[in-house]
Amino acid sequence: MKIGVIGAGYWGKKHVDEYSKLGYEVIVSDLSEQSLEFCKLNYNSKGTTNYNDILNDPEINCVSICTPTPSHYKIAIDALNANKNILLEKPIAENLHQASELIRNASDKKLTLLIGHIFRFNNSVNKIKNLIQKQILGEIYSVNLRWSNFQPVYSDRDIIYDLGVHPIDILDNIFEIEPSDVSCKAASYRQKNFEVAQVSYNLKKVNTKPILVNIELSWLNPIRERKLIITGSVKTAEIDCVKQKINIIHNNSASAEEIQLESNNTLKDELEFFLSSSKNKASILSPFPNGEIGKRILGIVETAFKLANK
Prior knowledge:
- Helix content is 35%, strand content 27%.
- It is α/β, with parallel strands linked by helices.
- It has two domains: 2-118 and 266-288, Rossmann fold (3-Layer(aba) Sandwich), CATH 3.40.50; 123-263, 2-Layer Sandwich (Dihydrodipicolinate Reductase, domain 2).
- Helix 5 (96-109) packs antiparallel against helix 10 (291-308).
């Protein structure tokens, strides 16, 4: 079976790698001959600089789109019009109108539209969701996320859209509550687009106290962190979302215990889910990151970005 990957940058190469390990023949499209040569040498893939070569191949039914966000809508629409099932990297599009068009188009054609919210496949995230549902932490008071790592200057990337999608989606997955009272402050020091940001909001169900959320984003901090701290009335959870480790701290005694957890290859599981959904035509009804979820997360990100620009 052939698989298409459009965009062979840092993350696109990872798609090519995992598909190859799964035993598929991978056809890669990228404007960079150097990237195509890298994929050929390392993953034995075939390459083209014109993504329409992939879309016009009748043997390819599933395509990963890993290009920069401004190109998502055009390439995704072209792929859907070519009757391809697509895994579209986050965010789903540049705006909600584009997202709605992609969802409608995929639904009309009964094609899979999966959005690359990879932490929905993360064992530590899904484990803490389960523990919260069992009220192991008690009533949830607050949530803090620190998402940072040093990055070079980007001419076309904004940290709220690029990095902020992940923590916002993690909380959407865990709590399944629409945010309210969103606020955002952001700044840039080396480039035009934002490279540090602080996003805050409340998660509140009817007749309950709000859960206070604070998300710190930074491309300036050299300390790489993907940490989630959830404070409850009885216990507090500290989650390393990359190492997939969970520590539970008892609030009164400060004693801690590590939850035994088997980490997983989230990208491999995401790609397998995509291929299975495409084969079984199940992703439209799936709670995993379909177009509607991608659109909802984009709406929160868009709100934060607009507030940061005020």
